Amino acid sequence: MGLQRKDLLGLEHLTRAEIELILETARPMLAVLGRPVKKYPTLRGRIMVNLFYESSTRTRTSFELAAKALSADVVNIAVATSAVVKGESLVDTARTLEALGADWIVLRHSSSGAPHLLARQVRAGVINAGDGLHEHPTQGLLDLFTLLRRKGRIEGLRVGIVGDVLHSRVARSDIWGLTRLGAQVVLIGPPTLVPPGIEKLFPGVEVSYNLREVLPSLDAVQVLRLQLERQKRGLFPSVEEYSRFYRLDSERLRDWRAKPDLVVMHPGPANLGVEISEELANSPQSAIREQVQNGVAVRMAVLYLLAGGRTEE
Amino acid sequence: MSARAAGENLVVKAQILDEDGIRRALVRMAHEVIERNRGVENIGIVGIHTRGIPLAMRLAREIGRIEGVTPPVGTLDITLYRDDLTTIARQPVIRETKVPFEVEGRRILLVDDVIYTGRTVRAAMDALIDLGRPRVIQLAVLVDRGHRELPIRPDYVGKNVPTSQREIVSVRLRETDGEERVVILERPAGDDDREADRVV
Questions:
Q1: What ipTM does this complex have?
Q2: Do B91 and A31 touch (CB under 8 A)?
Q3: Domain range B19-159, CATH class
C-alpha cells in the first residue's frame, strides 16, 4: 500500500487504487483543518517549492497551506523576479532549487509536458500544478474528493463538464479521474469548444451540444471558466449567446428539470453571471466553497503519500 | 502486529494471557484508575488505533460498572505523528481520530495494547496535545514488554512480560481478531527486529 512514485504528473496514468488511496488519505487531512491546531508535524524539515510560470493565486496558496499544515517549509518563486528573466532554463532553475534542498517542486507551466521533462531531470519530487492544456491533477483529485463527500460514491454517477473543454486542463484531469473511478462523463458546450471527435480521445465519454437535453440526467456538473480571451479568436460569437445556451442558474436548473440534488462545481475563478449565476454559486447546491477547502486536504494527502513513497533514500 | 503474525511463518512460543486473564487484568486496572484519580470525575479515555480502542471501551465499561459513571471514549490515529515516515516501506492507512469531548483541562487515560519502544506513545501524546492541553495524561497498557527507547513509563499495566527483541507480542481481541488471548510469537533469524512495532 502506498504511492510508489516520486512525482504526481497527471491522473491519466494513475491506477484506480492509487486515486482511491489519495482520496482516503485526504479525509483525515481535512479533519485537522477544522481543529484549533491546524497542523500535523509529519513533514517537519521538508521543503516544498512553488515554481509558477503562470499566474495563480488559489492553487499556489492552496499548495502553500497544505505544505504548512504538514509542517513543511515553503518557498515561493515568482518567476517575474527570478533568474528566469535572465534566461535560466526550467531545468537549470529546478536543479538549483534542488541543490538548495527542495524535496518537492510544484510546477505550473504554460507548456504541456513541462513537469514530465522536469521529473526526469531532478531527484526532487515534481507535482504538476497545471501544464498547458494537458492536466491539473490536484484539481481533478479535489473535484473527485468533493463529489465523493457530497454523494458518498463516484461509481455510477453521471457527471457533466460544461464549457470550454478544449482549452481546459481541469477538464482533462476530471475526465481521467472520473472515468477511472467508474463515473459516466458528458462533455457539454458549443462545438467550437467541445470539438467533434474529442470523445475518441477519452474512451467512454459522451458529448452533447445541448445542455437542456442532458441536464435532467446529471448527478453533478462541473462548470468550467469561460476563458473570455478566447472570444477574440471567434470560438464563440458573444458572451451573451454563450450564456443563453450554457449558463447555469437556479431558475434554469428548475425549468430544465435538473435533479434536485444536482451538485454544482466550478474550479474557479468563476465569471459570475457568465457561465454561472452568483446566486447559484452561493446556493446550497453549489460545492464551490468545499472545493477550495478540499483542495488543501487533497494536496496534503499528495504530499504525505509522495513523502512516504520515496523509498530509494 | 497480527497482520504479520497471520501471514508469515511465525511460531507461537507461549501464551501469556487467556480470555479470563485479559478480563481480570482489565478489572484490576479499572480499579487502579479509579483509586489513583479518586473517582472518575473529568476523566476521558482515548484508545490508540487499532487494539487500544476496544481496550479503551472495555475499561470505560468496567469503570462505569464500578462507579456508576462511564467515562467518554475517543479514538486516536497517530500515523501523522510518527517519527519514521521515510523509513517505513509502506505507508499505513490513516484512520479516524475522533475525540468526542474537550481535551482541554481533562484527565486523559491513554490506552494501547502493548508498550515496546515507547515511540507510539510519544506520538500519541503529541497528537493529543494538539487537540488541547490536558490536565494530566496517564497511560494504560495490557502488556509491557520492555525495551523502551524513550523515557516513558505506563501508569497501569495488565501484565509485565520480559521479551527478547526477536519476539513479537500479539494481542488478539474479540473485536479485532475474533479471539481473546495474548501470545508471544517468534520469527526466524535475520528479520528486522523493529518492523513489528512500526506496523502497529
A1: 0.75
A2: no
A3: alpha beta
